[in-house]
Each structure stands twice: as C-alpha cells, then as structure tokens.
C-alpha cells in the first residue's frame, strides 16, 4: 500500500527515468525517448496518457512539487496546451 498520492503511471515514468539515468544533474533527454521506454517496458497503453503525465509533472502549477524538470513548452495555467513530445526535453 503506497500512500504517496501518485498513480501507477506516475511511478512508472519516474522509475523509467531513473533506469535511464535521467537525473537532475545530467543533460536533458527528449520526452519522446522517455515516453517510448515507458510504453515499451512498463505501461503498454497509449503514448498520449504517458506524455500528459510527464507534462503534468513538469508544470510548476499542477503539483505541489515539480517531479520532472522540463525544458520547452509545457503549457500554461491559462489552458494553453503543451508542445508535442518531439519538441520538449526532460530530466
């Protein structure tokens, strides 16, 4: 029983980023790379659900603590959508 408030897709994304060595002090990696690894190894569902999860974790206004450091357009509080995963990078 995990009481951290994260859904399984959140945990799978964070685990996949950890396995990739995608830490806070390393270089950014393409979001599409992380999404592909998560879909291929841990979460066999659509890529939109995984990328939406990454976007939400990278937005400073969505969660109390940003779990993903994003570079690029991850949307705004006014409802603007994020850029496609091929244009954004995360760590």
UniProtKB/TrEMBL annotation:
Higher taxonomy: Bacteria, Pseudomonadati, Pseudomonadota, Gammaproteobacteria, Enterobacterales
Protein name, UniProt field: GyrA
Catalytic site: 87 (o-(5'-phospho-dna)-tyrosine intermediate)
GO molecular function, one term: DNA topoisomerase type II (double strand cut, ATP-hydrolyzing) activity
Domain Topo IIA-type catalytic: 1-91
One Gene Ontology cellular component annotation held by this UniProt entry: cytoplasm
The entry's keywords: DNA-binding, Isomerase, Topoisomerase
Record field: catalytic activity: ATP-dependent breakage, passage and rejoining of double-stranded DNA
Coiled-coil segments on the chain, per record: none
Signal peptide (UniProt feature, chain positions): none
PROSITE patterns listed in its UniProt record: TOPO_IIA
UniProt GO BP: DNA topological change
Species in which this protein is naturally found: Salmonella enteritidis
Pfam families associated with the record: DNA_topoisoIV
Family: Belongs to the type II topoisomerase GyrA/ParC subunit family.
InterPro entries: Topo_IIA-like_dom_sf (IPR013760), Topo_IIA_A/C_ab (IPR013758), Topo_IIA_dom_A (IPR002205), Type_II_DNA_Topoisomerases (IPR050220)
């Amino acid at each position: 029983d995990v009481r951290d408030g994260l859904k399984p897709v959140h945990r799978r994304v964070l685990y996949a980023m950890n396995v990739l060595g995608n830490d806070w002090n390393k270089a950014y990696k393409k979001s599409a790379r992380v999404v592909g690894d998560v879909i291929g190894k841990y979460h066999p569902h659509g890529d939109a659900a995984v990328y939406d999860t990454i976007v939400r974790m990278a937005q400073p206004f969505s969660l109390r603590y940003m779990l993903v450091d994003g570079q690029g357009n991850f949307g705004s509080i006014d409802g603007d959508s994020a850029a496609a995963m091929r244009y954004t990078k995360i760590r």
